[in-house]
């Protein structure tokens, strides 16, 4: 070996930045609402507009005694409905283990922990085991029907409708719903007609429809639907979220102001 080679190599190594094997971890802060806080670091699907919209919009005028949230995730919708209603039973179902554990924690850390309960089960298992009927059933279901998949399995389960097909959701809701109950969902606007058609096959009919657009010039992206066993003409509503970026419409603010801190 040539003289000085080892010293040169050592000198070069000393100039190379050391690379740590420790992967930096993104710490996701809790999402604070006016009356409760959501921890979401273990959930594939984080807090989003869809869930909060549905939890704020769904009707509770019939003063439901029992509520069921299908595919609870963080538990956001169940918590909103616990805040909004006097329902004595607010149940939730979550199949993903991490999301289930986080949902339970969020329930227990809320002011309504004695009314909230989350089941770790698939919807199929739940329907087979539970004989009770619910006065209000809500769901923000997975709804990407395209072939696209991410590389994150938990997120795919939370986001794609092959994990919870619409027909299974609708049929299960029809079994679990009380005779005068309400079943409410938020889905892509383009899926509205098909969803209503499937629901009609189990005698569930839309009584209220709200079509949501991001701003005044954008197309309608979401439909919030309320079904019951009563076949009456549906009340059609429209909701625009923003007039411009971060400038919210009065209608939207009035809908969600009981939840968001800054509204």
- The residue-averaged pLDDT reads 86
Spatial order of the strands forming the largest sheet: 5-4-3-6-7-9-8-10-11
Q: How much of the polypeptide forms β-strand, as a percent range?
A: 25-35%
Structural class: alpha/beta
Broad CATH class? Alpha Beta
Q: What CATH architecture label applies?
A: 3-Layer(aba) Sandwich
Shape: globular
What gap, in angstroms, lies between the N and C termini?
73 Å
> Regions with pLDDT < 50 over 5+ consecutive residues?
1-25, 144-150, 155-162
Based on CA atoms alone, the radius of gyration comes out at 23 Å
Helix share, percent: 25-40%
Overall tally of structural domains: 1
Description:
The protein has helices spanning 5-15, 49-57, 76-84, 97-108, 123-129, 153-159, 166-176, 192-200, 250-256; strands at 31-32, 37-38, 66-70, 89-94, 116-120, 134-139, 177-188, 205-215, 220-228, 235-244, 247-248. With 263 residues, the protein is of the alpha/beta class. The chain has a single domain (29-256), classed as Rossmann fold. The strands form two sheets. Strands 5-4-3-6-7-9-8-10-11 form a nine-stranded mixed sheet. The chain has a two-stranded antiparallel sheet with strand order 1-2. The longest helix is centred in the middle third of the chain and has 12 residues, at 97-108. Mean pLDDT is 86; it is low at 1-25, 144-150 and 155-162.
SSE map:
Layout: H1 5-15, E1 31-32, E2 37-38, H2 49-57, E3 66-70, H3 76-84, E4 89-94, H4 97-108, E5 116-120, H5 123-129, E6 134-139, H6 153-159, H7 166-176, E7 177-188, H8 192-200, E8 205-215, E9 220-228, E10 235-244, E11 247-248, H9 250-256
Parallel strand pairs: 3-4, 3-6, 4-5, 6-7, 8-10
Antiparallel strand pairs: 1-2, 7-9, 8-9, 10-11
Helix pairs in contact: 2-3
